[in-house]
Every structure is written in C-alpha cells, then in structure tokens.
Amino acid sequence: MRILIKLAWRNLFRNHRRTLIMLSAITVGVWAMIFMTAMTQGMVSQMVHDGISVIPGHVQARNPNYGDDPTVNNLLPVPDSGIAGRLEGRGFSSWSTRLSVPAVISSERESRGVTLLGIDPEREADFTFVDLETIDGRYLEGVSDQGVLIGAKLLERLKTRLGNRIVLMSQTPDNDIADRGFRIVGVFNAKVELWEETWVLTGKETLQTMLGVPDQVTEAIVFGDNYRQVDEVADSVGDVFDNSVSVQRWTELDRYLGTMLEVMDGFTLVWVVVIFLALSFGLVNTLVMAVFERVREIGLMLALGMRPSSILGQIVIESMLLLIIGLALGNVLAWLSVSAFPDGIDVSIVAKGMEMMGASSILMLDLRLQDVVLANSVVLILGFLASLSPAWRASRYDPIEAIHKVD
Amino acid sequence: MSAVRCVDVCKTYRQGDEDIHALDHVSIEIANGGFVCLSAPSGGGKTTLLNAIGGLDVPDSGEIYIDEQRIDNLNKGELAALRLQKIGFVFQAFNLIPVLSARENVEFVMQVQGVAADKRRSLAMSILDEVGLGGLEERRPAEMSGGQQQRVAVARAIVSRPALVLADEPTANLDSKTSDELMELFTELNTHHRTTFIIATHDRRVMSYAKRLIKMLDGRIVDDIAQA
Amino acid sequence: MILTLRLAWRNLWRHARRTWLTIGAMVFSNVLLVFMISFQFSVYDLMINNSLRAFSGHMQVQAPGYIDDGSMRQTVAEIVPLASRLRQDFPDADIAARASGFVLASSEQRSYGIAVYGVEPAFEPSASSIPGLVTDGRFVESGDEVIIGTVLARNLRVSVGDELTMLGSGRDGSFAAAVMTIVGIFDSGIPDLDRSIAEIPLATFQEVFYMRGSGHQIVINAPTIDSASDYRQRIRALLPDDLELHDWTALQPGLKQAITADLSSSFFVYGVLVILVAFSVLNTGLMSVLERTREFGILMALGIAPGRLGRLVLLETALMGAIGILLGALLGGILTAYFGVTGFVVPGMEEMAVRFNLPARLYPGISVVTLFAGPFVVFLVSILATLYPAFRLNRLQPVEAMRAA
C-alpha cells in the first residue's frame, strides 16, 4: 500500500504542468463551492435573522383568526397577565407579548397607514428590529410609556420632527374609531427602510387603554435557542395554551422565509454537484492521459507480476491525491476569502432590490462547518467514482500488447 | 558557384563538466550539383554540421553561406523562410504528419509556401510518381512501409525544387534493399535536377553512392575524398 | 486553408476520448448556461411586465419631488387635458391620469388605512391590468363608486354593494370625507395591491380632495417595454419643464435592483463554470502540444514558422469550441424548449414567486441571444486558454524538439 502511494505521488508530478493545471481547476472549483455557499448561507441566515426580528419570534401564539384578519377583534383569548405567568421560567431564551393593530398616522401635513405596536420595551429589547444604538431621542420606557417611537423614513414622509405631536387612529373592537395624539419621543433606524415606514411603537398599556382592551394582547412571542430547531419550543408553547390558541412557528408565519431556507439548503447541494461535474471532465481527462502515456510502463508492471488490482489502486490513489491537495488548497482559499470580509460585503448599490428579496444591503458570509464537510465529501466520493473507469481500463491491459505499444 | 560554403565554423556544447567540440574550425565548400556524404562515428559532429548548414543550429563562430548568402547571422524567421524555399530536409524515419495522407504531407509544405491549390495538387501527384509512389498517394503514413514513408519525405523535401537537400541518416531505419532503392532515387534526382545532396551517414553502402566523401572525427574534417 | 482545417480536424481525433471529454466539459457548461440564461431572462421579462402592467406603468409624469415624498400637494395641474393631449400625440401608447391620497377606509365592522386612487374610467383599463382583474362586479364608471382588492375586502368584511367610508385630508390639508359604494372587487395576485389600494373615478377624487383639476401622475405605457425609452425621449420633449418624467427603474427601483443583484450572483456562477471549462481546455491544449513536440520540431525544420503551428493549435480548439456551441445550443435549446412547454417548478418556489409577482409555474422562452450568448463566451474563453500552449511553440527549438520522444 505504501509503495502504491509513493508511486502515485511520484507519477502525479511527472507531468507537473498538467497536474498543476488540474490542481488549479480543483482549487478554483472547491473555492467557488465553499465561497458561494458561505455567501448564500450568510444571506439566508441573515434574512431569517432579520425576518424573525420583525415577525417577531421563533414561535407565536395568537388567536386562530388573527392571521386572516390582524385586528383588535382577534385578541388572544387569554388575559395578558395570565400569559406572562405561564411563559416565565420555562427556559425560553426570551419572550414577550404585544398588541399589534393597523392604524393611520397623521402629522399636521401628511397621513400614512402603519402597524401600531403596543410593546413591552424591556422584553422586546432582546430581539427588536429597532437599532437601539442609533435612536434619535429615546427608546420607550416601560409598558405605560405615553410617547411613540417611529422610523426615520416615516418621519421624513410625514414631514415632521422629533418632539412633535402626531395623531394615531385605529379601530376599537366595536368598530369605533379611537384616535389619540402622541408625542414623538424617539426616531429609530432599521436595517430595511420599509420597516421604518411600517412600524410605530408605543407602550403596551397605553395602546390597551386607547383601544379599550385592558390586559389584552394579540400575540405572545417566544424565542428558543436556534431558529433551525423550533419544534420543541412550539410544543412547549402549545402546552401553555389550550386549543383556542393557535401556536405557529416562524416558518409558517412567514412562508417566504421558511421556503427560502429549504430552497437554499437544496441549492447548496445542487451547486456543489454542478461544480463537481464541471470539474469531472478535466479530472477524468487527466487520468485518461496519465494512463495513456504509461501504457508500456503499466504493461511492464503487469509483466513483472503486479496484480491488476494494484494498477487500479495506483490510478485511484493518484486521483485521490490530486483531489485531496486541490481540496486542501480550495478550503484554505475559501477560508481566506471569507475572512477577508469580516464585516460582510456591501451591496448597498442594490439595496432596494435586496429589500425586495427580504435581504439587507450588507451580505454577511457564513462559513458553516456542515457546508464545508458537504462540499469536501461530495468531491471525494464523486471523484472516487469518476476515477474508477480510467483506472479499471488501465488494469485490464494485456501486458504483451502494452509493452510493444508504440505511440 | 558553391552551394554551401563554411568558413572556420566552431560549435561547443557543454555536457556535464566537459566541453564537447562538436565543430572545431570546420571549413568546406560544396559545389552546385554535388553529391556529398558526411561520415563520422556517433558524436563526430556530422549532425551538428548538417544542422548548422540547414540553419537549425547557430554556430558559435565562423561563417556559413548558402548560394553565397550568409546565413549564420539571420534571425529565426529568416532562417525558417530560407529552409522553406531553398533547403529540403530528410530525417530518419517517422517524420511525417501521421494524420495526413502521402499527398497531403507533400502539399502541406507547398501550402505554407503559398502555392495555389490546383498547382499544389498536380505537383504533389507528379513528384510522388517520380519517387515511385504512384497509386499510394492517399495512404496515411501508418499504412506504408518504412521505405515508402522515406520516399514521401524525399518527395516533400524536393517538391519545391530546392537547390540543396540535407539528409540526416536517411537509411537508419531501412533494410539494405530499401536503402539501395532510396540512394538510387537520390542519385537520379542529383543527375536529373542537379540538386545538391549532403547526406550524413555511417552506413558504408550509402557512402559508396557519393561523388565526394567527407570524413569527420571529433568535430574536425579528417579526410575529403573525391569518388568515381 | 482547407488542408489546414483538415489537418486540425484529424489531429483532434488522434485522442478521441480526450477530445470528447473536453467537448463534454464545454457542452455541460453550455447547456447549463443556455437553460439558466433563458430561464433568467424570461423571469425578468415576466417580473417587469407583471409588475409594471399591474399598476406603475412604463413611465409616469409627475410633479418634481413627488416620487420621493408622494405628498398630496405635489400636483400636476390640469391633469386631464394634459393626458388627453398626450394621447393625441401618441395614439399608440396607453395613457391615463391618476390622483392619489391616503385615507382611513371604514366598513361597518373594520377600518384600514389604504391608498385611494382617482382614475379615468375610460382610460385606466388600457393603462393598468387592475380593471381587467375585477373578478366580482365591475370597474368604476362615475360618481361615488369604488373598487377594492380581495384581501382588503376580506379584511373589511365587505362585498359588492356595501358602502365604504373614507376619511382623509384634501390637497389643502382640510378634512376630506366621502361615502362610496363598492361596485367591484379585483384580484391582482399581488398582495400589496390587493391589500392596500382602492380606485375611484378621477372626477370624484378631485371633488372630494379639493384637487381643483389637478392630479398626481400620468401613467404611460409604450407599446412594448423595448420601445419605452424611445417614447420617453419624445414625450419628455413635449412636456413643460416643471414636470418630471420617470421611467420604470425610478418608479420601481427595487425591481431593477433585484434583477441587478440576481444577475451579479448569476454572473459569479457563470464565471466559475466558464473558468473550469478554460482549465479543461488549457490542459488538453498543453497535452496536445507537448505530445507533438517531435512532429512540430520536424515541421519547423522544414521551415514552417511557429506562428503557423500556433494557429493550427488554436484552430483545433476553435473546432472543439464550435462543436461545443452547436451541441450546447442544441441540447440546451431542447431542454429549455421542453420546459417552455411543460413549465418549470422549483419545489417550494411558490412563496418566492408571489413575492416577485410571478406565477408558480414558469415557462422559459428562447431567443437567439439566450441560446448563443453563453456558448459564445465559452468559445472565446477556450480560445484564450489555448493562447498559452500556442505561444509556447515560439520557444520550441527544432533540433531539441526533434530529439524529444
């Protein structure tokens, strides 16, 4: 076996130019596999991360009718104070409850349709889409905060300023219009401009009072540890409520995001296989040539009594050595190029387009061990299979004919 | 007028730690229509001299003239053009393009020379006939014997009527009968077209055909005999 | 030339397996490129058409700044006469005037903030696909009539014949209110539109919101998207200077950028494929030159210039590339045509498709460009990759070359 490896190694570098070209091809291919995967996985995991921050939650409990008709008419059939007691101490990484209703916001000059959120600011600080670092003014203080926090883009649309008053109108359960003046106490920035236009935040109790629904909320939000494993969290939340409450995972709440995750996981495999196939032509070609040049030599070895299986093994080992070196180089190159962008790649030139896809304008690269393992094993396994045919042919030569072959 | 004139030509190779004097102050003159054999043991310098005359190798010093045109100071492109127009080469066996037929091998050189297609074809057919390959024009090299292959090479070398044909061990891979036939062909071409032949060989049968026999040893001319 | 071509062709088949493997790499990439590019461009066309035909149009005439602020006050004066003048000058284009505002729309049971559009009942059906998508009832004609989207109708719990109260502010900032009758419900399939807009006759809008004859946008559709930029120039020349004419890339920057973003990531994919083919070709080219060293040496000794031999090697690659183009375009075309008939569904794509105004089943179309663009690039890059082995011939010394095994 050792002699076979030694032979394969020396043969590999006999025609060093050809070996180097093939090695470059494998390296580029492996690099592309891993780098592209890191890019798509980075984009998806960020999309999911961002998406989860606006859904929000890994799991939500809400009125079964709320999905179709997200209004104050479809409140959770459990008092807010009761939910809090039940979610506490169950090991969720964070949770909160909120009241979320459609509303119209008007400044002295403009009006817009928005979603008004009555929140628990301390609890939501764990997962909010609001960039807490860059708030102009202040974040909300407690559930009974009387001010509103609005997005920078909405502020611009409304042609108003921090500290000014705006009017919010929404509907009560009796379909009366409840309206109320608020002071803008803070202006927030978010990753996606659309969010700055869509969401208006105030204290949960303030909104409950305005709409006349004390101690009532529309959703309970729960986060587990990992967005890819939410079944346990969902079961656990399900235990808290009875059947009158619908418990949904984020993949059901945002089908686009949920699908995206699956499609991209599938895409990774397709991409790796496609690249390998493109490489395989060159790989098989190199092996065919290597065998062809050495027909006489192989004939000699067979004549000297080497078993055909050893010939086969030698060619396969040569192929595997080539692949392993290429993989090593490709992996290192991919790791280096991913490390070159620790802060992600700025694609803000197409920010609006990324927004349309639900992604942000900084593409983070996410090099996941499982993707690297996938790429490497696909190359090794398929590479092994691809090298069998030329190797088998080599082992079938008739020694006498092979020795006398003239090119 | 001389076909080839060499004046004090030197060429030294380094092999390991040793300097090999492949050509050591060689001066010769070969007249038009000459039929010369260069004979020397292996390493005697005959191939080096032939290559220098053919412009394949540039001497370290000395002067070489073909048709009184100095060639040792020409560049690669000029040398290529010179070989194409004025010199025909015949090497040891296996020197045809394997994927082309006998006729196409002959035509290929003419095409590069810029001969028109129809003229090329008739010339190739007649020259192949002349070297005794009539009827074998469409065979590929692999389908011909060694002697037949060498005849194609000869046809290729003389088709453009060069003044000078250089042959390096042309019979090395041929049996004695085929060798005789090839030499008779050379003699005939020499008589008919007054083409100058310089043949490097160590085959005594070949030497017996020569009008002039030049013997070399260690890069020097040691003997120069006119033969009947 | 014929002889050289024949020589190149026969040289290729000295190693038929190697040649086929190299062509195989080209064909593999070409088929992928043809299918992916055809698919991609069909999708883009569909995205653009669906999105633009639905509502925003190829271009819009607006007051300066309206595109950014969308304020009620940024109006186009005397919008109806202006629109009809444009219609006279450009009879082939579909042109319709609109005004828009923001209101709180209330039914008996529910209230939602929505955008309300005043549209010209006679012309809107040709400028936007919404009037044609009224699935229940009919499009607005005159007076206090309104159509709304299916999602909004469901959310408001209303149906055709019900009344809808609209509260908002007029052009001068004063309170504006109207009670309208729902005459139709449309289903555009675009969630944003179905959820959040209502259309009423422009005349009614101007009255309710105190517009005094003005409006906010004139939507213009050129006969085709390709002729849009030509129309844009001609229309621009006729418009007063105080009005702006925006094309679809400005009206829907997300669309354009989503396409750009998608294109750039695809170019990465295509680039990698092409580079891998280039390596294959480079390898084959180098092998074919190295193994013929002796042969080339003899040819050079005969006086054939290295440049000519280099061209021979390039010609050999060009022949492989040509087979690659033909087979790639043929197989890629068949594959694309097959899906063009049966349609193409990526599992789990439905949700993604909706987001980009696309149907779940896509039918890729083929054009000369999508069929040959990819294979042609592969061809060029293959030639480039062969330059190295071809130039190496210049370094060949005939004497040494002839000695090579």
Describe the structure.
The complex is a heterotrimer of chains A (407), B (228) and C (405). Chain A has 15 helices and twelve strands. With 407 residues, chain A is α+β, with helices and mostly antiparallel strands. Chain A has two domains: 196 residues, no CATH class; 197 residues, no CATH class. In chain A, helix 10 runs parallel beside helix 14 and helix 12 runs antiparallel to helix 14. Chain A starts with a helix and ends with a helix. Chain B is of the alpha/beta class and 228 residues long. Chain B has a six-stranded mixed sheet. In chain B, strands 2-1-4-5 form a four-stranded antiparallel sheet, with helices on one face. In chain B, a hairpin with a 2-residue loop joins strand 9 and strand 10. Chain C is of the alpha+beta class and 405 residues long. Chain C folds into two domains: 199 residues, no CATH class; 163 residues, no CATH class. Chain C is built from 16 helices and ten strands. A six-stranded mixed beta barrel of chain C has the order 2-3-8-5-7-6. The two termini of chain C are 29 Å apart. The mean pLDDT of chain C is 90. Classes of the chains: A alpha+beta (407), B alpha/beta (228), C alpha+beta (405). At the A-C interface, helix 2, strand 2, strand 3, strand 6 and helix 10 of A face helix 2, strand 2, strand 3, strand 6 and helix 11 of C.
Q: How is the topology of this model organized?
A:
The complex is a heterotrimer of chains A (407), B (228) and C (405).
Chain A: H1 2-12, H2 16-54, E1 59-62, H3 80-87, E2 94-106, E3 111-119, H4 121-124, E4 136-137, E5 148-151, H5 152-157, E6 165-171, E7 177-188, H6 193-198, E8 199-203, H7 204-211, E9 219-223, H8 231-240, E10 246-249, H9 250-253, H10 255-293, H11 295-303, H12 308-339, E11 345-346, H13 351-357, E12 362-363, H14 369-395, H15 399-403
Parallel strand pairs in A: 3-8, 5-7
Antiparallel strand pairs in A: 1-9, 1-10, 2-3, 2-6, 2-9, 4-7, 5-8, 6-7, 11-12
Chain B: E1 2-15, E2 18-31, E3 35-39, H1 46-53, E4 61-66, E5 69-70, H2 76-86, E6 87-90, H3 102-113, H4 117-130, H5 146-158, E7 164-168, H6 176-193, E8 196-201, H7 204-207, E9 212-217, E10 220-226
Parallel strand pairs in B: 3-8, 3-9, 6-7, 7-8
Antiparallel strand pairs in B: 1-2, 1-4, 4-5, 9-10
Chain C: H1 2-12, H2 16-56, E1 59-62, H3 66-69, H4 79-89, E2 94-106, E3 111-119, H5 124-127, E4 134-137, E5 145-149, H6 150-156, E6 163-169, E7 175-186, H7 191-196, E8 197-201, H8 202-208, E9 217-221, H9 228-238, E10 244-247, H10 248-251, H11 253-291, H12 293-301, H13 306-342, H14 350-355, H15 368-392, H16 398-403
Helix pairs in contact in C: 1-13, 2-11, 2-13, 2-15, 11-15, 13-15
